[in-house]
Amino acid sequence: MNVNIMNVDYSTKIPNNVNLSEDRQVLKALEGWHPGYIDWWNDMGPDGFQQSLVYLRTAYSVDPRGWAKFDYVKMPEYRWGILLAPQEENRVIPFGENYGKPAWQEVPGEHRAMLRRLIVIQGDTEPASVEQQRHLGKTAPSLYDLRNLFQVNVEEGRHLWAMVYLLQKYFGRDGREEADDLLRRRSGDADSPRMLGAFNEATPDWLSFFMFTYFTDRDGKMQLHSLAQSGFDPLSRTCRFMLTEEAHHMFVGETGISRVVQRTCEAMRAAGIDDPADVAKVRALGVIDLPTMQKKLNLHYTLSLDLFGSEVSTNAANAFNAGIKGRYHETQIRDDHRLQNSAYPVLKLVNGEIKRVDEPALTALNMRLRDDYTQDCVKGLLRWNKIISTAGYEFKLSLPNVAFHRAIGEFKDIHATPEGVLIDGATWDRRKDDWLPSTGDGDFIASLMTPVTEVGGFAPWIAPPKVGIDNKPGDFEYVKIET
Ligand SMILES: [Fe+2]
Ligand SMILES: [Fe+2]
Fold it and tell me: Could you tell me the end-to-end alpha-carbon distance of the chain, in angstroms, rounded to an integer?
């Protein structure tokens, strides 16, 4: 492994470990794109706090033993860089029809369109979430949380840079056009929305933010894992480094929800409430009741399931065959990595019933990745439920059935309860507010969202974290709002 690749060159305008100073054409293209990016950040990035000093980590290396340093930065001055994981020598394509052949260092001509499309779709999600979260700074429950929000935001910005680098370097003129379009689309815009549904939804409050970073960033994790297997080596290396940063985003989600659950349980105990389903009583304490958390979870989990696409998909089969997009942990799976003759069970609607049906494993790859995702999601639920049971309550948070509240795939045209019982449209309309956040639920949560900006202070609906970022003490000033 070459030592230079480990450390990032900060001498060019765009920090990088891809030797941009000797790749003048790409450097020029990226420098040309930079002002538009800064304009986008100023218009669509965090609303307010742009002149505040935020205690952020910046990547200075891709060495897994130590890759980031923390310091106070004004967000518009964050050094968004291009960082690829080190090239593995003699890496081969780990799956598909080209299994075992050397990984591509250039775009294979016959798969150019497919690769570009996958890179653009991934790239589009990165700025989208920044747009969705731009208003949250105004209601942050603490400086610690405010800092975490901004850390996630600047890193999503960097992930956009990561995808734009691939487009500019490997896709010529149409790559440049796609890079410009990534700055043109807007989350939730009627004329020019972001490409995927979940990225056009609002993130109205901090509970949504935690649910989003737990469930939707985790979809990102699964997609990045599959692309990290890619036979197109620059994409693989890009995604491998992105995953290092992505872990923190999901940490913010998991611990955020844990802290909300914790605080609610403490408040219920202190008030002598025995029934966590007594919503009015719990809300009167100024904390978020567990049934409402379940509704938020139902919403964000199902929106995220839709991101996996149709259960049965020839696009997914083609991308696998081509060696472009693999499976989660592909290299650790023990099979032929070609899947020409294997099957995979898919949940389908058969004569009005939800059944498992064997499909060719190749076309069932979206379903498989979604199953891996669901298994990954369960870990958080176990932790949250542990907090609830330790506090002495019977209540359990759970993942709804995959037929519930879907807009894509097998179950998009039917209605089902969170338990997976099929119901008609009238029943759905009558009961959906029991399962998904209603306007009233949203108003209640919004009423709690008053900002806390004193050093070491926390809003009363959320518990403080167990440990600080970068091992800082509880009274650390993570954001210097006035500078
Ligand atoms: Fe990201
Ligand atoms: Fe993320």
Answer: 43
